[in-house]
Amino acid sequence: MTSRALRGSTTSKHRKVATPDAPSADRAVWADAAKGLCILLVVSWHVIWKHYLYVDWELPIPLPEAWSVFGRMLLPMRMPLFFAISGMFAAAAVHRPWAVVTRTRVARFLYLYIVWLLVHTAVMAPVPVPFDTEIARDGAQLLEQLTMTPTALWYLMALAVYFVIAKLLRTVPAAPVLAVAFVLSAASAANWIDSPGNRGALYQNLLFFLAGLYLRRHVVDLADRTSWVRVAVTGAALGAVLAAMVGLNAKEVPGVWPVSGAIGTVFGITVMAKLSGVRRIGRPMAALGRQTLPIYVIHMPALVLAHWALLGPLGAGPLPVRFGLAVLEPVLLTAALVGVSLGLQALAHRVRAGWLFELPGGATSVAAAAAADAPQAPPVADPTVPIPVVPIAHVRASWPDDDVTMPVYASLRPHADALTMPMPRVRAETAAASWTR
């Protein structure tokens, strides 16, 4: 047993208890807040790249170019961070039986991909203006998008595939798995692998999902021990890498993309771990992070319709109006798309169309799986049942009348946590003691 095990098991009246693998409440806040940031970056990127840059702004200064650079600078953080958090949340799921993983993860995400691909095709194909995304125009293209070349919904297909890979490799050590995933990511980013559509994104982001899965403890420690100094250092490192990557157009240089994605992920974790502690930022962002699915699947067809309606009028007004819109439109349209997505999800549930967001008959299974991932209360020992234990340390406890030193025991039963007598407050750190395995 290590000091880590003891640190996660000491109990007191004023201290929360968590098993080593169970996420704490604070951890859930920062992780959900990070997902909220990621979905905002996804929507804003699509707004900029697929709509805003196609508007004929006719401005005397390069505002559209500035928005373009802003969007490209955040590419190494957006999806790598999203997948790292997803992998961290998947750590418990991949150890469940195949039947559970298949239904609650693989089948669910494939079902959502198929349903929303059909919705996207039905909404976007009739739109008469060009739009920069994959839209099936016939049965053959639709079949290809269903099987081989994922569309803008590729994140859903990726999760289904990644869960299968993670389940198959769950007993393989982290080092060789992450090394192979790094090579795959680097080769895809360098265009060494034929990757039509968004297939390359599947190759490039497997690394970050598996990193979140295998390195979960390190991710949690990074978030728990972060500081504003660390935020500044990682932010400066990310800025330097991004400036070099954009300035030298080095994204396709072998190894640059996975390295920049790793730095972007570390920065995203550190900054959101700090900002999640700010109530006015952390709570709204975490709430948004718990609703990423409807935003992800709905915002694209909504953006296509907005692009159709706004493309002409935005470039037709007087210069002061165009200038103001050119400054604010990416932010305003991103917020509008998020609001519309959440509103349509609420409406769908009101009219009993929840099947758009959940595998029919799978809500109970998914809820049970989510409950299993949630932090569990520590078991309470029955004082009438003898438990085989060994002493591992002593803790000095402050009682109302006097200080006492109490032993800490470790159960010899598999998967059991360390046990102490109940005590109101722990005043001092663990005393020196012999450690055993």
Helices and strands in order, then pairings?
Elements: H1 3-7, H2 25-50, H3 63-73, H4 75-89, H5 98-124, H6 139-147, H7 154-168, H8 174-189, H9 199-214, H10 216-224, H11 228-247, H12 256-275, H13 279-289, H14 292-314, H15 319-350, H16 363-373, E1 389-398, E2 403-411, E3 418-419
Helix pairs in contact: 2-3, 2-4, 2-12, 2-13, 2-14, 2-15, 4-9, 4-12, 5-7, 5-14, 7-9, 8-9, 9-12, 10-12, 11-12, 14-15
The count of β-strands is 3
Termini Cα gap: 4 Å
Count of discrete domains: 2
Number of helices: 16
Could you spell the SSE succession in H and E letters? HHHHHHHHHHHHHHHHEEE
Largest sheet: 3 strands, antiparallel
Indicate the radius of gyration in whole angstroms.
25 Å
Strand order of the largest sheet: 1-2-3
Mean pLDDT: 82
How is this structure best described in words?
- It contains 16 helices and three strands.
- It has a three-stranded antiparallel sheet with strand order 1-2-3, with no helix packed on it.
- It is mostly helical.
- The protein has helices at 3-7, 25-50, 63-73, 75-89, 98-124, 139-147, 154-168, 174-189, 199-214, 216-224, 228-247, 256-275, 279-289, 292-314, 319-350, 363-373; strands at 389-398, 403-411, 418-419.
- Helix content is 61%, strand content 5%.
- It folds into two domains: 3-17 and 380-419, no CATH class; 25-373, no CATH class.
